[in-house]
Amino acid sequence: MEFMILGTSSGMPTKSRNVSGYGLRKSAVKPWVMIDCGEATQHQVMRMPVSLYHLEAIFITHLHGDHCYGLPGLLSTAAMQSRQRPLTIVAPAEVLTFVNAAVVCSQMELGFELVLVDVTTLAPDFTTEHFAVSVHALSHRTASYAYSFTEREALFGKSARKVVIAGDNDEPALLKEAVQGASFLLHEATYTQAIAEKIATNPQHSYAAQVAEFAQASALPALVLSHFSARYLDFPTQRQLSLDDIEAEASVHYQGNLFIARDRDIYTLDEAGALSLTQRQRRFR
To answer: Which residues form the active site (predicted)?
Structure first.
């Protein structure tokens, strides 16, 4: 499998990080699925080895804008590229209302069928061309979900690989059953613990140590952290926090294969279910 990082920032973009978006596909095939579609996600797609033409389905974890504001623009671009094959969007009902309103109010002319599926009605046997998909309820300020993707055609003698990609969630333990047998979990680590404890209001987000402890207890082979607050810079400085602080905190509590997601990273999950980083964009300070 190939797992692509389209955006890693929480709430708002930074100069180097876009808001939430991820891509997943079987290796060496063209069809792929997207998980979350924050503003400008289509720009990130243009820099990846996939196309909107072959996008099969979009799964939205929850209604907050940093996870769904990119949908209208992406749909419009797909239409202008003469897409004809149906496109499925699985999302909370409010997101589907938003999509419908954008299509109507902007007089968007889609040359393809848009299949809208309320996530709460997703069938237990829902599949895409290459994945069986299931949904898992999380804890956030609004209804939020994780999606697990299990390959439909495993190689002879190999177990079907499974990955779990979670939306915003302040109770990682809710994924205890979902991650059983998973090769990796993608989960938010919006803050470090000290910052999470300083915030007066309850943002209902997870912090690095919290997720790492859950991953360790669940014996997860690999953990990918993402959805970082804009207060964390890409590179460490003497005065400001950075993603190194997220990684340092998580590594104390988790001894598996830990990854701190960066925009436009590409990961490969091999036949044995081992995750590795295979492409990373060069970054400048």
So the answer is: 66
Q: Mark the binding-site residues, compressed into ranges.
A: 62, 64, 66-67, 140, 168, 227
Tell me if residue 265 is catalytic: no
Bridge partners for 146 per DSSP: 136, 166
List the 87-91 sheet strands across, edge first: 114-118, 87-91, 55-59, 32-37, 21-25, 2-7, 266-269, 275-279
Architecture, CATH, for domain 2-279: 4-Layer Sandwich (3.60)
Q: Could you tell me which residues come within 8 angstroms of residue 216 by beta carbon, excluding any fewer than 6 positions away? A: 253, 254, 255, 256
Binding residues for Zn(2+): 62, 64, 66-67, 140, 168, 227
Q: Angle 174-3-13 (CA atoms, 0-180°, nearest 5)?
A: 80
For 211, list phi and psi in degrees, rounded to 5.
-70, -40
Q: Tell me, what amino acid is at 80? A: M
Selection from 133, 9, 134, 137 nearest residue 69 by Cα: 9
The pLDDT tens digits of the residues spanning 216-244 come to: 999 999 999 999 999 999 988 878 999 99
pLDDT in tens, 14-24: 999 999 999 99
Cβ pair 121, 90 in contact under 8 A: no
Stated pTM of the model: 0.97
Tell me which of 66, 245, 263, 265 is the catalytic residue: 66
